[in-house]
């Protein structure tokens, strides 16, 4: 799975369509920072303030993710949001609209880091678009505490796969199976994201949504840490063809997966 991500932050110059950043908007930013600092060893520094209080998470001095604070009146589900690279956010946002998606925020400039928009696909799953400034450093990947993979959980993959293929130029690689609806999105021959159609198993309170996987050194130990820090284990650790995986939620309910020895 780690081969699916280039080492790229929100402001790295990278191939359009490449997943390049993940960001979390929470109500209690300080408490959220404390949870992820203890879990992943992240440190934080202030980031662009266009969307309100925002920090960048760092590991070994290099950026891995972002976090912002939601206004108290915003009661949307707390969720990790992936961002996809673009050479022209305004043009990509217009393509999103033409293909049946919605642009909720932007496009707008984020200080000297680049230009962004936040959108949703026709199934309602939220994602970001990022046009990065070329002079800034790339983010860290491929080590514990960094994003390793992103996967869209949706009712069925066929229609939404066409949306992402048209907007970002992906090639589709479906799993040929009568009872497993899964499509891998490829860019330049590399897998960059997965689409998983789960039918009526899709959570009614969340609908279609992107799930971020973070690499960890020990999945079982990470689950013990999550519960000790006030989070929840939603799916216990189990071995998969891609590594040992589990799904958890932080204390505010943001769902993410962890993967040990991703391959």
UniProtKB/TrEMBL annotation:
InterPro entries attached to this UniProt entry: Anthracycline_SecMetBiosynth, Glyas_Bleomycin-R_OHBP_Dase, Glyoxalase_6, VOC_core
Protein origin, superkingdom: Bacteria
Ranges for domain VOC: 18-132, 146-261
Classification via Pfam families: Glyoxalase_6
PANTHER family: CONSERVED PROTEIN, GLYOXALASE-RELATED
Name under which the protein is recorded: Bleomycin resistance protein
Record organism: Streptomyces bungoensis
Organism ancestry: Bacteria, Bacillati, Actinomycetota, Actinomycetes, Kitasatosporales
């Amino acid at each position: 799975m780690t081969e699916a991500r280039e080492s790229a932050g929100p402001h790295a110059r990278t191939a359009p369509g490449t997943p390049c950043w993940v960001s979390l908007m929470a109500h209690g930013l300080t408490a959220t920072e404390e949870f992820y600092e203890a879990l992943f060893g992240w440190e934080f520094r202030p980031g662009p303030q266009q969307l309100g209080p925002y920090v960048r998470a760092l590991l070994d001095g290099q950026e891995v993710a972002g976090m912002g604070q939601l206004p108290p009146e915003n009661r949307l589900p707390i969720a990790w949001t992936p961002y996809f690279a673009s050479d022209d956010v305004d043009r990509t946002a217009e393509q999103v609209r033409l293909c049946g998606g919605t642009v909720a925020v932007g496009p707008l400039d984020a200080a000297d880091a680049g230009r962004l928009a936040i959108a949703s696909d026709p199934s309602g799953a939220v994602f970001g678009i990022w046009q990065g400034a070329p002079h800034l450093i790339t983010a860290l990947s491929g080590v514990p505490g960094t994003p390793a993979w992103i996967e869209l959980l949706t009712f069925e993959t066929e229609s939404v796969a066409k949306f992402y293929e048209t907007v970002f130029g992906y090639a589709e690689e479906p799993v040929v199976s009568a009872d497993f609806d899964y499509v891998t999105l490829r860019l330049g021959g590399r897998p960059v994201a997965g689409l998983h159609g789960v039918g009526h198993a899709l959570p009614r309170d969340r609908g279609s949504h992107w799930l971020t996987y973070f690499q960890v050194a020990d999945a079982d130990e990470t689950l013990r840490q999550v519960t000790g820090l006030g989070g929840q284990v939603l799916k216990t650790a189990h071995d998969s063809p891609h590594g040992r995986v589990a799904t958890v939620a932080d204390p505010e309910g943001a769902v993410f997966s962890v993967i040990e020895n991703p391959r």
